[in-house]
Specification:
alpha+beta
Length: about 160
Amino acid sequence: MSHPTTVYTFHATIHRLPDAAPRGAELPLRGESLPTLTLAPTELSLPFDVTFEATETALSEFERLYCEPDGSFVWVSDEAGERWQVDGHLYDRAERLLYLELKGHCPAKAFDRLLATLGWPAVPLAFQLVREAVILDETTFRRYAALPAGPASSGAVG
């Protein structure tokens, strides 16, 4: 029996999760009550252990991914399978990657490949939802991203 592939739909910035991130309120997101994190802006500025250049090089090895020198990129599926697209942008400070912005939708396996360029799964991650302005841990983000997004926030490719 074949199981459907989990597809995530999102618009988020991905940050390195600081140690002991305090829990925030549970909020209604995409029709479910989900737990959030409470992080100060300085806690969202914890850099990754990789450089902008190393991340850009790792991304450039992905098939069907085009990366501009400014760190913006687009990654699309092949035409044979399910259609998906992720648009992203790398941000750095002091020679280290500070965060990654991602928008679009893709299978969980492709999303994992993107996260691996940041040092995941060894490096814990925080996900700040751009539209909703809340921060989620990885488990909650994956739950959120797998929920139906609705037409206003889908980020989906037509």
